[in-house]
Amino acid sequence: MLRTLVRRAAEAPRPFNFASNPYKAKKIWPPNFDNMSQKHQFRLERRYKRRAKLAWARPRWTKGVKLAQNGIIIFVLVYGVLFMDWGREDTPFKGVSDASEQMEGKS
Hints:
It is a single chain. The chain has one domain. It is mainly α. It is built from 4 helices and no strands. Keywords: Membrane, Transmembrane, Transmembrane helix.
């Protein structure tokens, strides 16, 4: 095994040659849209869009961003309703704020 690694490392790197590639593509890409029907073009475009969307999907990142956004919104609403000093006596949340202060005093 070690001899094989040494032999391969000693070989000069050859430039890639499309003609001698053992893994040839089954279909030519991009296809020639001039020779296709409208229906076939639409199918290819739809398939490409679906695959591109799947390739760029980041479900964990999206879920994390949504959780962070909702957490911030809930925090701001709760803080504004219960703890923020509005500087006025007659706020729309006066009853809720007073109830939360009374519950804190009982604990």
